[in-house]
Structure formats: structure tokens, C-alpha cells
Write a structure and sequence with these properties.
single chain, 5-stranded mixed sheet, about 35% helix, alpha+beta, 15 strands, 8 helices
């Protein structure tokens, strides 16, 4: 196995050993960050544990994480979201994951999304394909939006982005739409269960791991301007066949947005 991916999977094991025992704990400590989003003791403890392991075993590598920012090398760095779906975690909803990606000279080369409360894990390494629970996965072959399942994040973000009407138009065109959000919708695209997943407000650590997993599964992943990047502030993952049509719908001028 690719050495970077093997280490990423070890990091995921460590994260799971800390996050799952505290899930639904009655004494879970939850605070509010300056941006009004919640953060738990587990978000911080998981990220710190991963940083400590990286410092011990891969001291030349940098780290950028949601809770403690960026440190060290930018040429070879780990991108970490200790709990993607913190609001779900806080409310006892099992759809949350630790997201871990390794980037070398600007290219994503290894990624893991580990969701222990769901007993699921997805991973990928550059050029070797994507896997879920040890099985190879691939995006769907759905080529008509009218036959597609579309997933999206909360409507508030779409309203703030001035794209709420565009999202509704996309949903209206699709066969089925569901607001799954977070990592979950993108890995559903990767394994062919959904065909489109999109969100207008998002950060690097939310996207780095799932971008590589989607791309290695044969899909396409861009921001809403159509650029393939995890740090563009928005996201669209598709099976590739629907990508340009969905981008056009989301870019289309809406007089009431």
C-alpha cells in the first residue's frame, strides 16, 4: 500500500478510538467558536492527537487543521477535519467523520474519510482508485439530470450566496433531491449512490479528502466556478457526466436570488 495512505489509515484508527467513545456522551463539552459554529472537546482532542502522531512519525510534514490552523511545511502537509459534521455529532446523529488528506507540492495524494458511528470508511491514493470498506468504488453512469439524485447542504448557505433559487431549479430538474450535507453526500457520489453533491460555503479541510476520493472513483470535483481545487470556498462533486450541466444551472442568473 502507498506509504502515505497507510499512515493516513493509521491516523484514522487513532481518531476513531477517541471520537467514537465520546459520541452521545452525557457530559460532552460543547462551546461556540467566534463564527458561531459549535466545537466540542472531541474536535480539539482528535486534532491534537493527530498532530502529535504526525510530529512523532512524520516530523518534516506540515499540518493544517480546522481547530489549530496551519503549521510547518506547505510542500508536504496533512489537511485535517477532526469531526466533519460537528452539529450532527453534538445532536447524536451518526453522520460525521474524521477527514484526513495528504498533499504534496499542491497535489492531493492520499485521503481517508472515517465514519466510525456508521461503521464506514472510504479512502483513496492518487492513481490507485477509491475504496469503501475495502471494496473498490466507482461513480454512477447516470447521464440525464432528470434521472439523477442530487444532494445539497443547508438552504441558509445558498441564500447567503444568492444561489437559493438556482439550487431549487436544480432540485426541480432532478429525479430526487436530499439535503444530506457534509462529507456524506460527496462519498455517496464516489460510490455511485448519488450523482451530484454541492455546497456554496465550505473550507479546505472539509473538501481535501473527499475531493481525492471522488476523483479516484472516476468523478469530477470542482468549486462552483468550475475550478478543480479544495480551497475554492464552494464545492460540486458529480459523476462527471452531469458536471457541466449542473455548473450551468448554478451559475445562471436568478432575478430573485
Amino acid at each position: 500500500m502507498n506509504a502515505d495512505l497507510a499512515f493516513a489509515l493509521e491516523l484514522a484508527d487513532l481518531a476513531d478510538s477517541l471520537s467514537l467513545p465520546r459520541f452521545r456522551a452525557a457530559d460532552l463539552v460543547v462551546e461556540t467558536k467566534p463564527d458561531m459554529s459549535p466545537v466540542t472537546e472531541v474536535d480539539r482532542s482528535v486534532e491534537q492527537a493527530l498532530r502529535d502522531r504526525i510530529a512523532r512519525d512524520r516530523p518534516a510534514d506540515g499540518v493544517v487543521g480546522e481547530e489549530f490552523g496551519a503549521d510547518g511545511s506547505e510542500e508536504a502537509r496533512w489537511i485535517i477535519d477532526p469531526i466533519d459534521g460537528t452539529k450532527n455529532y453534538v445532536r447524536g446523529i451518526p453522520i460525521w467523520a474524521t477527514l484526513i488528506a495528504f498533499e504534496r507540492e499542491g497535489d492531493l495524494v492520499a485521503a481517508v474519510a472515517s465514519a466510525p458511528a456508521m461503521a464506514r470508511r472510504w479512502w483513496a491514493a492518487k492513481g490507485t482508485g477509491a475504496f469503501a470498506d475495502g471494496r473498490p468504488i466507482a461513480v454512477s453512469k447516470v447521464s440525464r439530470l432528470e434521472d439523477a439524485q442530487v444532494c445539497y447542504s443547508g438552504l441558509g448557505g445558498w441564500r447567503r450566496a444568492g444561489l437559493r433559487d438556482n439550487l431549487i431549479a436544480l432540485a426541480d430538474r432532478s429525479w430526487r433531491s436530499r439535503g444530506f450535507g457534509d462529507f456524506w453526500m460527496h462519498v455517496l457520489v464516489a460510490e455511485g449512490s448519488a450523482d451530484v453533491a454541492t455546497e456554496p460555503e465550505v473550507n479546505l479541510w472539509d473538501l481535501a479528502a473527499v475531493e481525492l476520493i471522488v476523483e479516484e472513483a472516476g468523478g469530477r470535483f470542482t468549486d462552483l466556478t468550475g475550478v478543480s481545487r479544495p480551497d475554492g470556498g464552494s464545492a460540486l462533486s458529480t459523476n462527471g457526466l452531469l458536471h457541466e450541466e449542473v455548473l450551468a444551472l448554478l451559475r445562471e442568473a436568478s432575478p430573485t436570488s
